[in-house]
Amino acid sequence: MPSIREAFAATPSEGNRVLAIDFDSVNDDVPDTHTWLITNPGVYNITDERIIASTTIPVIDLNNPNVVKDLDYACENWYAYQVINHGVPRDVIKNLELHCNRLFTLEMKKKLRAARAANGITGYGSAHISWFECFGMIGSPAEYCKKIWPDQEDQCSEFCDAMEEYQKEMHKLCAKLMKMVINSLGIQSDDTDGFIGNLMKNTSPQNLLQLNSYPVFPEPSSKAMGLDAHADSSFFTVLHQTRPGLQIYKDGLGWVEVPHIENALVIFMGDLTTILSNGRYQSSIHRAVVSQIYHRYSVPFFYGPPGDVEISPILESTGKSPMYRSVTWHEFHLIKAKYFDKALESIRIVS
Ligand SMILES: O=C(O)CCC(=O)C(=O)O
Ligand SMILES: [Fe+2]
Questions:
Q1: In this structure, are residues 176 and 245 in contact, taking their beta carbons and an 8 Å threshold?
Q2: In a domain, 74, yes or no
C-alpha cells in the first residue's frame, strides 16, 4: 500500500531541495537564489497583486450550535476559515512554538544533519527561491532528532514529546472537522462515522506535520517570497501561525490577509475536498509573505486519507452528476506533480 511518504515523494514541487543559506549572516545583499521577482507569476499564474486587509476569512466558534452551517458558508464562499474554541490546549501550542524556535535557531550545520533525502518530505528542507525553511514529520521525528542532538538525549526527547503531543491534538480536531465537513455535504449526522469509516476503508487517516520558519528579510519584503501561491492536496490543512503573513487568494478581490488571532487556528480546504464535495468547496490558493521586522513561524498539519483509498464525489448536497473521477491521494500527487494548478481540471469528467 503506498504510504503518504511515497505519495509525496512523487511530487517534486513539495520543495525538498535544501538550498542551505545561513539566514542570519545575510545583511542587505540577498543572493539571487532567494530574491523574488514580483513579475514572476508563479505556477498558479496569478498576476493580481492587490492586497486586501479590509475583509477576511470567517472566524468560526466550534462551540456554536450553528457550527455546521457556518462551516458550510465558509467552505463554499471562502475555502478557508479560522476556528476558535477548537479544544487544543494552550500549553500544547506554546510548547510547540518553543521547540519550533529551538530547532530553527540552531546552527545551520546541525539542522543539515537532518536534511531530507532527495524527494523526501520529512526532515529539514526548503523550497525554491523561498525565504523559508521547514521541518516535516510523519509520526515521531525521533530518527532526525537523534542526528540533530546526538549527545543530548533530553533535548531530543523533549522535542519529540512536544511534536507528538501536538499531533495527538491535531488528530482529535481533524476527526471532528472531518465529521462536520461530511455533515455539511449532506450526510446525516447519525451516518457520519459509518460514512467516514467506509471512505477511509476503516484505516487511519494519514498526515504530515510541518514546522515552517520565515526569518526576518533584510531588504524590502516585496523582494522576497515566503511560500509562493499553491493549494494543498490534503482534505484540509490546519495551520497555527505565530504572526501575520498568510494570504489567501479570492477571485475578484485579490490577496486577502489572514490576521493572526490569538488562540485561533486557520483551516484551508485542500484539493481532495474539492473532489469530495463535487466542486462545491474549492481548494484554497494561499501563500506566505515575509517581514522585514519579525521572524514568523507557521505549523501546518496536512490531513488526508491513506494513500491507496479512492476518493470520489459525494453527490447528496449538489444534486449534480460527478464532476471528478475517483482518485487515490497517491495518484493525485503524481497528477499534481505533472499538471500543478490544472491537476483538478485534468480529472474532471467532461459531460
Ligand atoms: O506559512 C503559512 O502561512 C503557509 C504555509 C503553507 O501554506 C504550507 O506549508 O503549505
Ligand atoms: Fe499550503
A1: no
A2: yes
C-alpha cell at 116: 531530507
Ligand 2 centroid from CA 110, angstroms: 26
Instruction: For residue range 10-25, list pLDDT tens digits in order.
Output: 443 344 455 567 787 7
What's the domain range around 222?
Answer: 65-347
CATH code for the domain of 97: 2.60.120.330
Taking residue 256's Cβ as centre, other Cβ atoms within 10 Å add up to: 21
pLDDT digits (tens, 9 = 90+) for 263-312: 999 999 999 999 999 999 999 999 999 999 999 999 999 999 999 999 99
Distance 286 CA to ligand 2 centre (A): 6
ipTM surpassing 0.85, yes or no? Answer: yes
What is the number of the ligand 1 atom nearest to the C-alpha of 302? 10
Question: Is 287 designated active site?
Answer: no
Give the atom of ligand 1 at the shortest distance from the alpha carbon of 266.
3
In a domain, 287, yes or no: yes
Report how far residue 146's alpha carbon sits from residue 253's, in angstroms, rounded to the nearest whole number: 47
Question: What's this model's pTM, rounded to 2 decimal places?
Answer: 0.93
Asked whether residue 274 is domain-assigned, the answer is yes
**Cα 345 from Cα 347, distance rounded (Å):** 5
CA–CA distance, 161 with 156 (Å, rounded to integer):
9
Q: How far is the CA of 232 from the centre of ligand 2 (A)?
A: 5
In a domain? residue 317? yes
Q: Domain tally for the chain?
A: 1
